[in-house]
Amino acid sequence: IVAVLAIGGYFVYTSLRGPGGAGDEAISPNTQTPTPTQDPTANWKTYTSNFGFSLKHPSDWGPDKCPHGFAGDICAAELISIGPYYIYIDRYDNPQNKPFKEVVSNAYGLSKDYQDRFQYSMDTIAGLPVYRTEHLPSRSGAEIVFFTDNKNNYISLGFTPYDRQNPWPEQDRFYAIFNQILSTFKFLDSESSLRP
């Protein structure tokens, strides 16, 4: 029994002393410096809206890339068969502080039946609460994201064409860019960014 305890004690003692057995060497922690991740939006252009916000977009997107009739929108330079991928921008005033569903239903003229089926989700983008929906009338399908400013007005950014079930050509790539664009959204009025 004494021999077993002695051998066991020896193994515990040497394992605590570390490799080499000297016990004087300090075990150095992992000293690798993490590689900083580069912001993919760092070289993007800034778009400032009359609706009181700014966002960034790639240089091959922008209001200047839009065909005639897309005033105030941000378009991709690449066109697909039905036209460009683009983000349409709008604002819905809400001076009476009505609930989101009511404001959107009125703005889009949704029938009572459609309102009952209307679906949306809540999310957080750029630290701000938003509403997201794919369930509003659109010729080519759209996902629309609604930010709320400090006066409870809704700023909408709609990405189109978009169809989750039957994707358009290159939809996933452009949709990823749309989400990166959204991540750069900032209200110009600092009070707007303080919303709960």
Task: Work out the helicity level.
Answer: 10-25%
Q: What fraction strand? A: 25-35%
What separation lies between the terminal Cα atoms?
69 Å
Order of helices and strands: HEEEEEHHEEEEHE
Provide the spatial order of strands within the biggest beta sheet: 3-4-5-9-8-7-6
Quickly list its features.
196 residues, alpha+beta, seven-stranded antiparallel beta sheet, globular
Notes on the protein architecture:
The chain has 196 residues and is an alpha+beta fold. Helix content is 22%, strand content 28%. It is built from four helices and ten strands. The protein has helices at residues 2-17, 100-108, 112-117, 171-182; strands at residues 45-48, 53-57, 61-62, 74-80, 83-92, 121-125, 128-133, 143-148, 154-160, 186-187. It has a seven-stranded antiparallel β-sheet. A hairpin with a 2-residue loop joins β4 and β5. It is globular, with a radius of gyration of 27 Å. It starts with a helix and ends in a 9-residue tail after the last strand. 21% of the residues are buried.
What is the gist of this entry?
With 196 residues, this protein is an alpha+beta fold. It has helices at 2-17, 100-108, 112-117, 171-182; strands at residues 45-48, 53-57, 61-62, 74-80, 83-92, 121-125, 128-133, 143-148, 154-160, 186-187. The strands form two sheets. The chain has a seven-stranded antiparallel sheet with strand order 3-4-5-9-8-7-6. A three-stranded antiparallel sheet has the order 1-2-10.
Helix and strand layout, with pairings?
Blueprint: H1 2-17, E1 45-48, E2 53-57, E3 61-62, E4 74-80, E5 83-92, H2 100-108, H3 112-117, E6 121-125, E7 128-133, E8 143-148, E9 154-160, H4 171-182, E10 186-187
Antiparallel strand pairs: 1-2, 2-10, 3-4, 4-5, 5-9, 6-7, 7-8, 8-9
